[in-house]
Design a protein that fits this description.
The complex is a heterodimer of chains A (259) and B (302).
Chain A: H1 2-12, H2 16-35, E1 40-41, E2 44-45, H3 55-65, H4 68-84, H5 87-94, H6 98-131, H7 143-165, H8 169-190, H9 199-205, H10 214-223, H11 232-256
Antiparallel strand pairs in A: 1-2
Helix pairs in contact in A: 1-6, 2-3, 2-4, 3-6, 3-7, 4-7, 4-8, 6-7, 6-11, 7-9, 7-11, 9-11
Chain B: E1 4-15, E2 18-29, E3 33-37, H1 44-51, E4 59-64, E5 77-80, H2 92-103, H3 108-118, H4 134-146, E6 152-156, H5 164-179, E7 183-188, H6 191-197, E8 200-205, E9 208-214, H7 215-220, E10 224-231, H8 234-242, E11 248-252, E12 256-262, H9 267-276, E13 281-286, H10 291-301
Parallel strand pairs in B: 3-7, 3-8, 5-6, 6-7
Antiparallel strand pairs in B: 1-2, 1-4, 8-9, 10-12, 10-13, 11-12
Helix pairs in contact in B: 2-3, 3-4
Classes of the chains: A mainly alpha (259), B alpha/beta (302).
């Protein structure tokens, strides 16, 4: 496995797309997080506790989750490049097994999820340390970081799966970028009650919007009819099922296909 | 019998109802330079694709190094199929580093330097692959197959896209590697190429295997000699020949006949024979059958 990751890294480290996207990601997230306190939506402002433990983790994870799709584009480009350049084929000719091909890419998916999650945790930690009075609360709310890890892993695994199934790079990237909307539309038209179980919705439900103004919360409680809503725990279970499915279906498809 | 490097049994590949490769069986032994000959679309690349693990066979079996279809086998084979496949944003050297890592080559830096020099790309080692010309890409692909000094080379149309000088260089290189005792399997539709390079040859047509033999057997016909004769009155020549037991008509051409004779028959003897029969030859030569003619014969017969 170490050897496989080393091979992938040799291909990845000089990919310009990766560098550009990671730089955008790294700069934008703390900037937006910091800028949030200046935003007013009608009568609502976000509470000051957004920068303090334990809520800082939830906020930063929520903001970062909007950029998952962007980082997923790296996975998408990286994976579909191998098909476009026929290097996936050449790697197998040179001696990798098809299982190695999938395993190596999933290794990179995992690595990206870990790196991105660590960065988000760091941003949360720094803001928390600066704005909190009580630093003993350091790891309070840290479970949101775990949820963020699963969300990113989910989006990346989806990108990886998609690149392997839709073998035309341009089409795959466009469909991937619009996949959240497409899933939303399908859910809205066909199966509103079940849309919470759809993969991308599951991933995004893992990180709930951190702040619901008291007034709105009351309204929601009054208006929403009794209906099962998946909590964070169940979303996590479903997310893991989806991630596993994406990887195994990718393997199954590549194993059977002439590449 | 030498040691078997590759053994193929009833290998087939169907695309829907179309049989691209149809029940092919043959063996390749160590140190053979084995040619896979056939027109475009005869199933050469599909066959090699199956052998190299990228196309799933519809039926049949094959085994490398008497070790089945184990993925590890391919690390002992240097292979170029169809097009050179590399990462365009990486340099030649970086691309070869990846191949070396996959194959688990010992001391990769020295190995990479050596193959880049062999294919004449050492000066351009730090240029990105996408800046290469077609011929350079092809040479890099051939260089890549040599990485780690593999026991077997599998080459599909290796001189594709090269200029005449490049073609000559690569053929030279392949002949040299073959003589060094390596096993080479080479697919080509260029008969001349197979004839110049190979020791053995399989002829494919429409996915079917027509013939497997040594090149010498195919073009040599050691126990007979072909002699081409021409004269003013060809009908008389024909009558004389048909009455003769020592030789027969191998092939009729417009103004000449190609005669199949015993090995001892020289052009001189032939000339004398016809002179004694009252015929003055205006054309007389020992005829060397080329693979091309044999190939066309075999294709015609099938």
């Amino acid at each position: 496995m170490k050897n496989l990751i080393a091979i992938e890294w040799m291909k990845l480290r000089r990919l310009v797309t990766m560098k550009v996207i990671l730089i955008i990601y790294a700069i934008t997230i703390p900037l937006i997080y910091f800028g949030l306190s200046y935003i007013k939506i009608g009568p609502f402002t976000l509470p000051e506790s957004m920068y303090q433990f334990p809520e800082c983790y939830n906020y930063v994870a929520y903001i970062a989750s909007w950029f998952n799709l962007l980082v997923g584009v790296i996975i998408m480009v990286f994976t579909s490049n191998e098909i476009k350049y026929k290097t996936q084929r050449q790697n197998v000719i040179d001696g990798l097994s098809k299982r190695d091909v999938i395993l190596a890419k999933f290794g990179i998916v995992l690595l990206f999820a870990v790196v991105v999650t660590l960065y988000v945790a760091l941003v949360g930690l720094i803001f928390g340390l600066i704005y909190s009075d009580d630093a003993s609360q350091l790891f309070n709310g840290f479970e949101q970081i775990g949820a963020y890890f699963l969300t990113t892993l989910g989006y990346f695994a989806f990108a990886f799966f998609f690149a392997n199934i839709v073998r035309m790079q341009a089409l795959a990237i466009i469909l991937y970028i619009f996949s959240t909307f497409i899933e939303g539309i399908i859910g809205f038209i066909a199966a509103q009650e079940y849309s919470q179980f759809f993969p991308l919705t599951t991933f995004s439900n893992l990180i709930p919007f951190p702040y619901v103004p008291p007034m709105l919360a009351e309204m929601e409680n009054a208006n929403i009819p009794e209906q099962f809503m998946m909590g964070q725990g169940w979303s996590a279970v479903f997310a893991m099922v989806y991630i596993t499915l994406f990887v195994f279906v990718s393997y199954w498809v590549i194993k059977r296909r002439d590449i | 019998m030498g040691e078997k490097v590759l053994s193929i049994k009833s290998l087939s590949k169907n695309y829907k109802s179309f049989a691209a490769v149809n029940d092919i069986s043959f063996d390749v032994e160590r140190q053979m330079v084995f040619g896979l000959l056939g027109p475009n679309g005869s199933g050469k690349t599909t066959t090699l694709g199956m052998l190299m693990g990228v196309i799933r066979p519809s039926g049949g079996d094959f085994s490398w190094f008497e070790n089945g279809q184990n993925d590890e086998n391919r690390k002992r084979i240097g292979s170029l199929l169809e097009t050179p496949n590399f990462y365009p944003y990486l340099t030649a050297k970086q691309n070869l580093e990846i191949v070396a890592k996959i194959k688990g080559v010992d001391s990769p830096d020295a190995a990479i330097e050596s193959v880049l020099k062999t294919v004449g790309l050492y000066d351009r080692r730090d240029s990105k692959f996408r800046t290469y010309s077609l011929g350079m890409k092809q040479r890099l692909a051939i260089g890549s197959t040599l990485l780690g000094d593999p026991e077997v080379l599998v080459l599909d149309e290796p001189t594709n896209g090269l200029d005449p000088q490049g073609i000559a260089e690569i053929r030279e290189l392949i002949i040299r590697i073959g003589k060094s005792g390596k096993t080479i399997i080479i697919a080509s539709h260029i008969l001349d190429e197979i004839q110049k390079i190979c020791t053995h040859c399989a002829i494919l047509r429409k996915g079917k295997l027509l013939q497997v033999s040594t090149i010498d057997h195919l073009i040599g016909n050691q126990d007979v000699r072909l002699i081409k004769v021409g004269a003013g009155d060809m009908s008389k020549v024909k009558t004389i020949v048909s009455a003769q037991e020592d030789f027969s008509i191998y092939k009729e051409e417009e103004e000449t006949l190609i005669l199949r004779c015993t090995k001892e028959t020289t052009a001189e003897k032939m000339n004398q024979f016809f002179y004694e029969k009252g015929i003055i030859l205006n054309e007389l030569s020992v005829f060397n059958e080329s693979l091309e003619n044999q190939f066309l014969e075999i294709i015609k017969k099938s």
